[in-house]
Amino acid sequence: MERLFATEKLGGRALYKLHATTLFVGICLVLCYRATHVPAAGRAAWLGMLAAELWFGFYWVITQSARWCPSRRCAFKDRLAARYGERLPCVDIFVCTADPQSEPPSLVMATVLSLMAYNYPPEKLNVYLSDDGGSILTFYALWETSAFAKHWLPFCRRYKIEPRSPAAYFAQSDKPSDPRALEEWSFVKGLYEEMTERIDSAVRSGKVPEQIRVNHKGFSEWNTGANSKDHQPIVQILIDGKDRDAVDNEGNVLPTLVYMAREKRPQYHHNFKAGAMNALIRVSSVISNSPIIMNVDCDMYSNNSDSIREALCFFLDEETGHKIAFVQYPQNYNNMTKNNIYGNSLNVINKVEMGGMDTWGGPLYIGTGCFHRREALCGRTFTKDYKEDWDRGIKTQQGIDLTEEKAKSLATCTYELNTQWGNEIGLKYGCPVEDVITGLAIHCRGWNSVYNDPPRAAFVGVAPTTMAQTILQHKRWSEGCHIKWATPSMVCGHPTRYLLCTMLSSLH
Ligand SMILES: O=c1ccn([C@@H]2O[C@H](COP(=O)(O)OP(=O)(O)O[C@H]3O[C@H](CO)[C@@H](O)[C@H](O)[C@H]3O)[C@@H](O)[C@H]2O)c(=O)[nH]1
Ligand SMILES: [Mn+2]
């Protein structure tokens, strides 16, 4: 049977190998020099130099395993379409946001809209927004979005536009020349701008107007004075994709859209993004329970509406699909500083190293732009005879109120006490780079991963732009992969992979 994807080796490998060989000889010569020139005085400095050279030499040798033979993937969406048509698995999409001041809700909503507008059967798509700020402003923004989506989704489909984040699209696109298209373009643009203005002005004033609050029962969650650090669990299904009446303005079904703010109490540690993701895994398990989970940071919009279909080419491939736990896309940014002075474009990682890690079972999980197999993320160990049920998922709703109550009980502070959540199940806690460690644990359970970097970037986000932000981010990344976060079984189970995780996340 024809494969659903191909792997091709990157060109220029011979040249790189030549370059690497000369470097290796250089490193050996430096070490030789050091060993044969032991000074009589100043031994401490000599020892320090030797230690540094040995460490950097060792680092360099280890990273060669990711640079020696980089490859690129090519997914065949046409073959996927020919084989499966629209009989595709359900997908749950998780977006995490934490603070309406530093992550403006209007931008988060552009991300949410880009995800709702994927070129994918809408009844199989479920978008969840986790709000760690527990903010009525974010909820209000999502409520506005659920109404605007009824215009945005048909517009995207009719004109096959890219990218499908309205903010990015209207900033990039020229006015269409066809008068009918122009009329619609201007109408949708107008609606979008009005909505953004309403959201931004609510954020500026810090409150949602009273006449709006009566429009949805969800606003009443804030009647008791919930604040970001102390509030009850909130789950609101804003669009129920299983409801035949929830349709866009052309009568097509809409994707499910859910707002979640897990319970926060000062006496319980919330475990940052990993805690939010784990709450989402549980909440989604009673609403949609799709076999595939995708997650993005709130500042990373989908730039390519075919990314889901491409990711499925890997999962559904007959030969190797059953081994794959996650498909990782690179992090691309659209706000590079002049000359990329802080190296934020992550070129070496994105273009070479992530695609070069196949020998070690595939790329790292880097926290955003990643499609997971739900079972693997929830702690399942790989076995040859495991067969995924791609048809799984909740197809009929029990009644929204009942489902919401059930979901809230899974998003409480006490739910995880004395359980394996944060350890064997879901994302790992306690580590500043929960993603890399979680990915390592998945590999240690026997699964592989795949890296896919299509010519049209799948996700585009916002990188740090100042020295201070960059240093903070790198400090967190470097600390995160320190040995103390990995258990001995993880280090021993995949020693080279562990070293690579440590080194790739600490020295860029
Ligand atoms: O308590 C928190 C803190 C953060 N976030 C969200 O987590 C995401 C990432 O946080 P950010 O502060 O933007 O970290 P970055 O350094 O930009 O993130 C990179 O590094 C992280 C740690 O490795 C990964 O989790 C991210 O996916 C990756 O983009 C954002 O969407 C936040 O809203 C939460 O949901 N809850
Ligand atoms: Mn970020």
From TrEMBL:
Binding site for UDP-alpha-D-glucose: E103, D132
Keyword Transmembrane helix: yes
One MF annotation (Gene Ontology) recorded for this entry: cellulose synthase (UDP-forming) activity
Residues bound to Mn(2+): K273, D297
TM stretches of this protein: 14-32, 44-62
Chief location of this protein within or outside the cell: membrane
Membrane topology listed for this record: Multi-pass membrane protein
Gene Ontology CC, one term: endomembrane system
Keywords from the UniProt entry: Cell wall biogenesis/degradation, Glycosyltransferase, Membrane, Transferase, Transmembrane, Transmembrane helix
GO terms classed as biological process: cell wall organization; cellulose biosynthetic process; plant-type cell wall organization or biogenesis
Subcellular localization: Endomembrane system
InterPro entries tied to this protein: Cellulose_synth, Nucleotide-diphossugar_trans
Pfam families the record matches: Cellulose_synt
Name of protein: Cellulose synthase-like protein E6
Organism (species): Setaria italica (Foxtail millet)
Gene that this sequence comes from: LOC101768462
